[in-house]
Amino acid sequence: MAKTYDVVVIGGGPAGYVAAIRCAQLGLETACVEQWINFKGDPALGGTCLNVGCIPSKTLLESSEQYHHLKEGIDSHGIHVEGVKLDLDRMMARKEDIVLQLTNGIGALFKANGVEWLQGHGKLLADRQVEITHRDGSSDVVSADNVIIATGSVPIDIGAAPVDNAEGLIVDSTGALDFRQVPETLGVIGAGVIGLELGSVWNRLGAKVVMLEAVEDFLALADQQIARDALRQFKKQGLDIRLGTRVIATEKTGDGVKVHFKDKDGDHEIVFEKLLVSVGRRPNTDDVAAPESDLLFGERGFIHVDEHCETNLPGVYAIGDVVRGPMLAHKGSEEGVMVAEIIAGQHGHLNYDAIPWVIYTDPEIAWVGKTEQALKTEGIPYKIGTFPFSANGRAKAMDAAVGMVKMLAHAETDALLGCHIIGPYASELIQETVLAMEFNASSEDLARTIHGHPTLYEAMHEAALSVHGRALHKINT
Predict the structure, then answer these.
(1) pLDDT of residue 45
(2) Are 185 and 208 in contact (CB under 8 A)?
(3) What range does the domain containing 459 cover?
(4) Active site residue 420
């Protein structure tokens, strides 16, 4: 007879492992099914994010920024460094060490909280049963009062550029995180978040990076004033970003990969030593449920859920990248907490209007809430407050006085509607507005809040003041 749990979570990434831990904290007997095998050939928790996504990419972004700063940007501080050398093997070893620390840490958290890790591939069967297929091909079945599907996402493939990470010539994000030498030239198909972050890493380390983006608008999801500023900054750094460029085909040559593409001027071709395909991600729902389970899917492979992340099957939930909404690790984690608390009979909460977005380039880009173009489209009256980091003392001291804070508030109620930042530590600064929006704050609330001096947060304060023409350290217009 199959063992029965209160909750079985399928997937051990940020959505799944957080859901499992929270379920266990609430006194539910919980198991988590995860099949990931890491670079050492060992089973690992953490999913894409910790193993080949968020954590290794941010680690390389930090390392490459340190290298570039020493090599190119520290003279203005009166510090002269000679003989700076890149040890890529050591850089990659550091990345791998950090990944192991964090993924092993989740295993320790599972033990501390009493979560049972069932290693293998999980598939939902009928009547809330879950089949686990192990590495050796054997399988067994467990039952659960509740099942949470959290199998994440995978890179989108395009026929024009078939990925083969093992060969290392045409790669996806996983392959681009594991180059063992800096390519002389790197082509990137797609100028979204992943393409920009990984393109920035290899650009800083010495590669000539060309980004081919099919759409005409750069960072279409971001506020377009911020996006235009970002495009200028990235081009200054040497990233060759070509918008309105559609890749038609690729072919491998003795020199690398020849890419055939089309833009408004016609057909072109260019040869790259390496090619990164980063055109987005899709839900990882292949083979997640047996047909007899009757699980309902929506368009593009997403699992259909209600506002509480419950599927069409009572007691079966889905969270994270497999459901509607942004594919962000923190969104999936909070959905996991919400579902765990609902299962335990509590009131789960998640404010989808206050989910922060971050791009970890230099300068960083972050936002929360509505963009100006969305407010115009929806006919919502608004006021704008802005403040440039060029007028912020801390940013100047850091030699990082580029970009701005843009705050949007309702023209009649003054409720905060959104905040958009390009500049130093935007990923940290945005959290002030996330918290403010969670508590239904107004721009006046931020304007009346004391901010320490000198700090980058003063730019947030000044942008809030600027909403009503009261900025103190810029000329109000």
Answers:
(1) 98
(2) yes
(3) 354-466
(4) no
